[in-house]
Amino acid sequence: MLEAVTVAFHVAERGVFTAVERADLSVAAGEFVAIVGPTGCGKSTLLNVAAGLLKPAAGVARIFGEPLTRLNGQAGYLFQADALFPWKTALENVAIGPETAGVASVEARANAKTWLRRVGLENFANRYPHMLSGGQRKRVGLAQVLIRDPKILLMDEPFGPLDAQTRQIMGNLLLELWHADRKAVLFVTHDLEEAIALADRVVIMSAGPSSRIIGDWRVPLKRPRDISEVRLEKEFHELHREIWNVLKSEVLKGYAQTTLAGAAS
Amino acid sequence: MNRATLLVLQLLVAVVLIGIWHVGTSVPFFGVKILPPFFFSTPYDVGARIVKWLREGTIWWHLYITLLESVLAFVIGSLAGAMIGFWFARKQLVAAIFDPYIKMMNALPRVVLAPIFALWFGLWIWSKVALGFTLVFFVVFFNVYQGVKEVSPTILANARMLGMNERQLLRHVYWPSALSWMFSSLHTSVGFAVVGAVVGEYLGSYAGLGYLIQQAEGVFDVAGVFAGMIVLAMFVILIDVMVSMVEKRLLVWRPDPGDARA
Is it true that domain B42-260 has CATH number 2.60.40.2550? Predict the structure, then answer.
């Protein structure tokens, strides 16, 4: 999907800042790939390239063989920060996708209701985002993205701001919805355990700047999985240890760089 | 604190102030009244004047004129401010070209415009509407401009990923954001509309609360001045309560509309 993508920014007075250097990554249809890396390694940058929100300085993003030139219309994007429209109710937020595509309002709302039920929020349809908890807002976000039935799902640390329990519940909900209709998923996270528990493949990126993809593991765990139980299995631990050995040095490098940069400025 | 206690305490402030006023103007200390009634009138005289106005019915006409001027200034100023603010925020070149002029006009004390408006629009309501307009316009203009500029980039990216085209972005993202900023400055802009009307009347007119106060001042009728000010204050509080009610309805989606005043 992403071929030799390099993302560079021109930073005033400091020349070119290369965020991601020649990254190659392909995701098969229906495959769940997690990208893990230390903070500031450009995971989200890569995701934005796949979404068409960011143009790579070199390389091409291909969606089902077609080079991506504009916004990726086949992708749904779940953001880390709150991205719901605060002036719309939960129902209106979910219905906006089909409405934008030209579906009649009545039909869109009926469909949105179904999706709210699927994410367990049928009783909160008329609440505004600020009246919902962080986990509930993520559920609405998930419904908002999935109602458009995108072929590709891009997720940027979507459960990052949630507490540990809610994260597990949301992870299971995500897997359940994904099982019903397998989409290609690109899931960015800094949490290795979450990545292994959810994904078919785990991709590791090196510390930035100019970060590269340095590892690609297949997850041998069976599906369907339960996130909290899968963590107890032997294969999970072995894979976790193996990946962590590679990731650890990168995390330390990334940490050293951020502290050094902090000391310099 | 519950509402009843709060109301009692609020009334207590008025009672204490009127009490001090009464004692100062009617009880001599060592043969001298601290607040000479010639300069401060007395609570009784002022109250009697208000009652007289209400009984004669003359006050309603003046209130009606001031209200009409305020409403016209508010509506026209808000419409123009919202449209031009929106336009400037979306067209950066236009905003950059007009930026120094907007700042210059906003820095100008509006009182100096009043005589010119009186010359242009006459002494009837339109010169007051024009004065109120210059005040309301800038409040709404800056708020709508800011509202469009400060749309969260995440929400914008999300809207684009959900497939919105430019027109749909305007309708579902920019416009609601701009309106929310405008509504949160409702108290300020309504207040300015009233200020424009009253100051305009004060400087030259046939009717209105400002006219009433100015007439009383012209003949050293302090009771009339104070009565006019109190009626004006009541009028403003009434309008403010109505604005709060409207605001509550319009900004239901906001966490706490009261905190977000501009």
Answer: no
